[in-house]
Amino acid sequence: MKRYIDDFSSKLNRISFKTLEESKNSIYCLSEELDLIYVNPAWVNFAKENGASIQFLKELPIGKHIANTFSGESIKKFYTENYLKVLKTGKPWRNEYECSSKDEFRKFNQNTYPIKGGNGLIIINTLTINSSMKIIGRKAIKVVDQRYVNSDGFVTQCSNCRCTQRVNEPDIWDWVPEWVKETPENFSHSICTICFDYYWKN
Ligand SMILES: [Zn+2]
To answer: How far, in Å, is the centroid of ligand 1 from the Cα of 97?
Structure first.
């Protein structure tokens, strides 16, 4: 598995490579062109724990533009614009997002810093809320194919909260834990209206 580009540590200048490697927070770095140039071991562990395939981990998109890793045009635009703004202004940027599993509600804080005296960005993801889904009380709905599988055979999941969109009532997104544990065979990612309004609307 290749986690970083060959000359990565030369881009860091005053930041220690060892610190990034040993951090418990999942961290990734971007070049000035917003290409993914580094992920740390904690990032890989988190991906593994959340069902990333061996194939995905073997072929991490190192050297590829970060926009390729986000689903949905509005999300791509949101992150690209904000990352470019940090590069341009040199001011750190903070945002939050949800990344839950079947049984756990998890919220993350993301801090983006320009690499001091170097080239590119460091993005640090910190777990801020980790609570049982039972306590959150998100109502679990069982898989009903007719309700969620569209005429092309695809299921649409919110890439933030991972709720599933109904086909005939597209404004309703249900929590279907079975599909969080195991992603449906044919699925596409989108962002549900609540997540979009809460996390990304300017
Ligand atoms: Zn959502």
So the answer is: 10
163 C-alpha to ligand 1 centroid (Å): 6
Higher pLDDT, 50 or 127: 127
Predicted local distance difference test score (pLDDT) of residue 116: 78
Are 86 and 112 in contact, with CB atoms under 8 Å apart?
yes
Could you list which residues have their CB under 5 Å from ion ligand 1? 158, 160-161, 192, 195
Nearest CA among 35, 46, 32, 187 for reference residue 110:
46
* Band (202; pLDDT cuts 50, 70, 90): low
Domain(s) of CATH 3.30.450.20: residues in the chain: 8-132
Mean per-residue pLDDT, 43-62: 88
Give residue 164's identity as a one-letter amino acid code: T
Cβ proximity of 123 and 137 under 8 Å = no
Strand, coil or helix: what is 140? strand
What is the average per-residue pLDDT within 134-161?
88
- Using alpha carbons only, what angle is made at residue 191 by residues 53 and 87, rounded to the nearest 5 degrees? 80
CATH of domain 8-132: 3.30.450.20
Q: 157 C-alpha vs ligand 1 centroid, how far in Å?
A: 8
DSSP 8-state class, residue 66:
G
- Which residues, in sequence order, are CB contacts of 49 under 8 Å at separation 6+? none
What would the pLDDT profile of 64-75 be if each residue is shown by its tens digit?
999 988 877 878
Residue 109's Cβ-side half-sphere holds a number of Cα atoms within 13 Å equal to 8
